[in-house]
Specification:
The complex is a heterotrimer of chains A (327), B (236) and C (537). By secondary structure, chain A is α+β, with helices and mostly antiparallel strands. Chain A folds into 2 domains: 8-40 and 63-211, Immunoglobulin-like; 214-321, Cytochrome Bc1 Complex, Chain D, domain 2 (Orthogonal Bundle), CATH 1.10.760.10. In chain A, 35% of the residues lie in helices and 19% in strands. Chain A has helices at 16-47, 64-93, 199-206, 214-224, 227-230, 262-270, 293-305, 312-318, and strands at 100-107, 110-115, 120-122, 124-128, 133-139, 144-148, 153-157, 163-167, 173-179, 192-197, 249-251, 257-259. The longest helix of chain A is centred in the first third of the chain and has 32 residues, at 16-47. With 236 residues, chain B is mainly α. Chain B has a single domain, classed as Four Helix Bundle (Hemerythrin (Met), subunit A) (Up-down Bundle). Chain B is built from 8 helices and no strands. The radius of gyration of chain C is 23 Å and the shape is globular. The termini of chain C are close together. In chain C, helix 2 (27-55) packs antiparallel against helix 16 (459-489) and helix 4 (88-102) packs antiparallel against helix 8 (195-227). The mean pLDDT of chain C is 96. Chain C has one domain (18-505): Up-down Bundle (Cytochrome C Oxidase, Chain A), CATH 1.20.210. Chain C has 16 helices and no strands. Chain C is mainly α. Classes of the chains: A alpha+beta (327), B mainly alpha (236), C mainly alpha (537). At the A-C interface, helix 1, helix 2, strand 7 and strand 9 of A face helix 3, helix 6, helix 9, helix 10 and helix 11 of C.
Chain lengths: 327, 236, 537
């Protein structure tokens, strides 16, 4: 019966054990100090007890060496824990270069997961064991939070921004998925399951639906919304060429440089004047209201799929000659 | 200070005749000097607290200005720099007349206290009236966030945030001016009743501190709201 | 013990009638006025907690609707934070005892002190009305965009109530700071001050600098919700996370407003019931100031998973570890105070024992949350709930009760049943641990906060928690009974029933309206028991 009462969640991701190790280290250190103080207090309370209330304690006022010791030593210990915890943290927030990308949006009160192959699911997330997975997500309304205790990951879903979590599942099985930022009536109903499958089973599952790959949908939107009319591939259009732009450094009109990541692309679609690319006029209209979060994600996948321009030197030579590109 | 208190400790035994007291000395203080120091310290601490109060709005302003410089420039250009400038002069003048009121109290010129306080109040009223005109104009142009905001064509949508902060900051400031106005009315009445003297004019001084603070807040608000990128705008 | 009679003229009996209470400028009467309303708030907050724990006994959300549950935890938090924890020690015990401790006749601004109380009551009334007529369901943290755009509850009214109440806290802070600077008796130098005064000074610093920020944040929230301003609206380019920064800039220091005064009380009680000077007086005094200052630079540890940059998170994590050190210093100093003391096992000291155990757990579990790699997993789970209840209830409320039991004879002139006092302390300690320790386990398992229903495997710990809450409720109910009884039938206490040092114990119990018959002059260091021959009344 006792074994049926869980004390710890499963260690279902490759870094779950690291997080647990950190937990046990801090537990050991803090328990040591807590028990030590409790023991001292108990011993002193009993040993020096005076029930009459008429005696006086010893005339001791302090000890500078002791003060320095019990300030400095805990500080050094705290520093050590901080350092170790930060190392574990960077493991959690720095995904590896190659990850399986999944997009998600949270809204009251459900999670929608979009696999780039085209399959979508609600409140369930199928992932393959043994492969790093990155989930890029946002909220369509209020704050939410994507939390998978068995993987030891969580991040807030913020409307207007992208968040990401990554993990590499190490165990097949089914695990809880919770919303961990209060969002109203059915906050505790905004839960689901993560289903970790063996890689072969995952592939089979993926092909089990006729959904369109995200990048294809993105390409369709790119045409429908008219992006293709300004963002010409050869760089002669009113907007910069998007060939190979994903992940590249972009120079802005104000001199600053940014990396064209998911957030930057989303921002460029919804609030285009904010980070104007150097050498181009602020003429791009906003697509806020014309494309939803899922549409933006598919556009990102499409842009990711664009290979870099074939002859970059020739492009640069050509660009200044074209009339619209003025300083 | 401890000596003065110790000496006073003898004079103030269990019961004391009121003749020994300045009528304004409150009974939990030993001397008028102690009372004045307490009032002054209290008012300064209160003003520091007010700085923190406005600070939250200034923080939001600073953050968004860094993020949306164009919207800030556009929004600022929509404010009336002439009316804002007049108001700035009006407030600075009112601080001068307030200081003159305090000086009058310091030198025991009873009528002058009342007169300078009234001038200060009138200048404050002028500020509020001009502000009223500005707000009314903004309403007419449909520039009030949330209530009737209508973005001008080609304008960055974040101008609505600029205007939200404009109304929040100037509205809060105006509220403080109204409180100041009432405060000065009370003090002017007390002065009219000849309650102040060179020995005790603390309330006049404390009101002066508050009024100067409200003035200084405006000195920050005016350039931050009205003068964003003006040189660039003027240059065209 | 020799029998003592109650003094002839006291602050309680020199004037009668409701006007003499509602228009009083006496800091002692104002402290009691606060006691009435804070006790009321504590009972209401406790009632909401009972509702929460009753619902959570079973996994399904079957006792109340989701909306009702969300209102219950919101209102529990608001009542307890703003109307109990913030005012408890400063406005009740601080008001009563501060002028007595420094040898003054009253606080610097007695009229403002009374106005502070009225502001408190008005704010409480408005907030309660919001709760009664529909309730509020945003969580006490009011996060945007939920509070500005999605909630259908009385957010505006609650915001107005909280806004108004904040000024009570600010004015109390101003009053105490000026009182401590300007109204100390002759000979009462800074380093002869009792440590409770240092704690109240540090608290005043935080009240003055921090509270205005929550005021302006609530003001912005009201503008956004009420008028549609776009400061936090992502559609306009606003940042909903900016609200969190502004909110926690106050609300983190606020927890130090809640814990510093009780820590001051602990210093007083430990010194008295060990008959010994506090070990490391200057270190304890300065640690209060250090906590107040450091407390202002750790706020973003509430935003570790809210999208702040990892480098920013590192800075705040480091500072959050640093802020633990002064509290550790205090704990070690208190323990060392007991070494070679003469420990008198009386009820106030039992609350101190309880505090030491519970505050230790609460403070140390903060380190788990400051650790970035671990906070990702633990954030917004029941681990956090357990952590802050250990500090707020196990620390702050225990400290408040220690102070109440210590100063009760001075306030009322009567002794209460020491046996019942000790029994309540033990009951509260046991009940508290049973209620909140299982929540650490629940948190690590992954049970999120603010959940109306939960997966069945979490039930065992929830049942334990609810059982503990029942014991805790009894523990809190008992003092109401024996304190009330003592008012009518308690033995007269005399000036100094505990044989303590301190100016407040040199004068009669209850004190005179003007506190001291003659202006006291201070010649001793604080907690100078060495020169005493203790005669316990």
């Amino acid at each position: 019966m006792l074994s049926a009462i869980p004390l710890f969640p499963a260690q279902a991701s490759t870094f779950a054990a690291d997080v647990d190790r950190l937990y046990f280290l801090i537990l050991a250190v803090t328990s040591f100090f807590a028990i030590a103080v409790v023991i001292f207090v108990a011993i002193f309370a009993v040993k020096y007890r005076d029930e009459s209330g008429t005696k006086v304690g010893a005339p001791i006022h302090g000890s500078i060496p002791l003060e320095l010791a019990w300030s400095f030593i805990p500080f050094v210990i705290a520093l050590g824990i901080f350092a170790y915890a930060t190392v574990v943290y960077f493991e959690l927030v720095r995904p590896p270069a190659e990850t399986l990308q999944i997009y998600s949006t949270g809204k009251r009160w459900m999670w929608r997961f979009q696999h780039i192959s085209g399959r979508a699911e609600i409140n369930e997330l199928h992932v393959p064991r043994g492969r790093p997975v990155k989930v890029t997500f946002t909220s369509e309304d209020v704050l939410h939070d994507l939390y998978i205790p068995a993987f030891r990951v969580k991040a807030d879903a913020i409307p207007g921004r992208y968040s990401e979590i990554w993990f590499e599942p190490s165990q097949a099985g089914t695990f809880h998925l919770f919303c961990a930022e209060y969002c109203g009536t059915s906050h505790s109903g905004m839960i689901g399951r993560v289903v970790v499958m063996e890689p072969a089973d995952y592939q089979a599952w993926l092909s089990g639906s006729d959904g369109q790959p995200l990048a294809v949908r993105g390409q369709q939107l790119f045409q429908q919304l008219g992006c293709v009319s300004c963002h010409l591939n050869d760089g002669t259009g009113r907007g910069p060429s998007l060939a190979g732009v994903y992940g590249a450094k972009v120079e802005l009109a104000n001199g600053a440089g940014v990396v064209a990541d998911d957030g930057y692309i989303r921002e460029s679609i919804l609030t285009p004047q904010m980070k104007l690319v150097s050498g181009f006029q602020p003429v791009m209209p906003t697509f806020q209201g014309l494309v939803n979060e899922e549409g933006v994600m598919s556009l990102i996948e499409y842009i990711k799929s664009l290979p870099p321009a074939v002859k970059p030197a020739a492009q640069a030579a050509q660009a200044p000659a074209a009339p619209p590109a003025q300083r | 200070m401890p000596d003065a208190l110790a000496a006073h400790a003898d004079a103030h035994g269990q019961s004391h005749g009121h003749a020994a007291h300045h009528p304004a000395l409150q009974h939990h203080f030993e001397t008028l000097e102690q009372q004045k120091e307490a009032s002054t310290l209290g008012m300064w601490i209160f003003i520091i607290q007010e700085v923190m109060f406005f600070g939250g709005l200034f923080t939001a302003y600073m953050l968004y200005r860094i993020w949306y410089p164009e919207a800030w420039s556009e929004g600022s250009a929509e404010l009336d720099i002439v009316l804002g400038g007049i108001n700035t002069v009006v407030l600075i003048a009112s601080s001068l007349t307030m200081a003159l009121a305090v000086r009058a109290a310091q030198t025991g010129k009873q009528k002058a206290i009342v007169n300078w306080l009234i001038v200060t109040m009138l200048l404050g009223l002028t500020f509020l009236v001009i502000k009223g005109f500005e707000y009314e104009h903004k309403w007419a142009l449909r520039h009030v966030p949330g209530l009737n905001f209508h973005a001008e064509p080609g304008q960055a949508p974040q101008v609505e945030i600029f205007l939200s902060l404009y109304f929040a900051l100037t509205g809060l400031h105006a509220l403080h001016m109204v409180v100041g106005f009432i405060l000065l009315a009370v003090i002017a009445w007390m002065a009219h009743k000849k309650r102040f003297s060179p020995e005790w004019y603390t309330p006049v001084e404390m009101s002066g501190l508050y009024w100067h603070f409200v003035d200084i807040v405006w000195i920050f608000l005016f350039p931050l709201l009205y003068l964003v990128d003006r040189a660039h705008q003027v240059a065209g | 013990m020799t029998t003592t009679a109650l003094p002839r003229r006291t602050y309680l009996n020199h004037e009668f009638g409701i006007k003499s209470w509602l228009l009083t400028k006496d800091h002692k009467r104002i402290g009691l006025l606060y006691l009435v309303f804070v006790t009321l708030a504590f009972m209401l907050g406790g009632l909401f907690a009972a509702g929460i724990r009753a619902e959570l006994t079973t996994p399904a959300g079957d006792l109340v609707s989701s909306d009702t549950y969300n209102k219950l935890f919101t209102m529990h938090g608001i009542m307890m934070v703003f109307f109990v924890l913030i005012p408890a020690v400063p406005a009740i015990l601080g008001n009563f005892v501060l002028p007595l401790m420094i040898g003054a006749k009253d606080v610097a601004f007695p009229k403002i002190n009374l106005i502070s109380w009225y502001i408190f009551v008005i704010g409480m009334f408005i907030t309660l009305s919001a709760m009664v007529f529909g309730g509020v369901d945003t969580g006490w943290t009011f996060y945007t965009p939920y509070s500005t755009q999605a909630s259908n509850s009385n957010v505006m009214a609650t915001g107005i109530g909280v806004f108004i109440t904040g000024f009570s806290s600010i004015l109390t802070g101003v009053n105490f700071m000026v009182t401590i600077h300007r109204m100390r008796a002759p000979g009462m130098t800074w380093f002869r001050l009792p440590l409770l005064v240092w704690a109240l000074y540090a608290t005043s610093l935080v009240q003055i600098l921090g509270t205005p920020v929550i005021a302006i944040t609530v003001f912005m929230l009201a503008l956004e919700r009420g008028l549609g301003f776009g400061i936090f609206n992502p559609v306009l380019g606003g940042d909903p996370v900016l609200f969190q920064h502004l909110f926690w800039f106050y609300s983190h220091p606020a927890v130090y407003i809640m814990i510093l005064p009780p820590m001051g009380v602990i210093s007083e009680v430990i010194a008295c019931f060990s008959r010994k000077s506090i070990f490391g007086y200057s270190f304890v005094a300065f640690s209060s100031l250090a906590i107040a200052v450091f407390g202002f630079v750790v706020w973003a540890h509430h935003l570790f998973v809210a999208g702040i940059s990892p480098y920013s998170a590192m800075v705040f994590s480091f500072l959050s570890f640093a802020v633990a050190i002064p509290s550790a210093v205090k704990t070690f100093n208190w323990t060392a105070t007991m070494y070679k003391g003469a420990i008198w096992w009386k009820a106030p000291m039992f609350y101190v024992f309880g505090f030491m155990g519970l505050f230790l757990v609460g403070g140390l579990t903060g380190l788990f949350l400051a650790a970035l790699g671990l906070d990702v997993h633990l954030h917004d789970t029941y681990f956090v709930v357990a952590h802050f209840h250990y500090i707020m209830v196990g620390g702050a409320i225990m400290g408040f009760f220690a102070g109440l039991h210590y100063y009760w004879p001075k306030i009322t002139g009567r002794m209460y049943s020491d046996t019942l006092g000790k029994f309540s302390a033990v009951l509260i300690f046991v009940g508290f641990n049973l209620t909140f320790f299982p929540q650490f386990v629940l948190g690590y398992l992954g049970m999120p906060r603010r959940y109306h229903a939960y997966p069945p495997e979490f039930q065992v710990f929830n049942v334990l928690s609810t059982a503990g809450a029942t014991v805790l409720a009894v523990g809190y109910a008992l003092p109401v009974l024996y304190f009330t009884y003592s008012i009518f039938k308690g033995e007269a206490a005399g000036n100094n029933p505990w044989g303590a040092t301190g100016l407040e114990w040199t004068t009669q119990s209850p004190p005179l309206p003007e506190n001291f018959p003659d202006q006291p002059v201070v010649t001793e260091e604080a907690y100078d028991y060495s020169k005493r021959e203790i005669k316990v009344a």
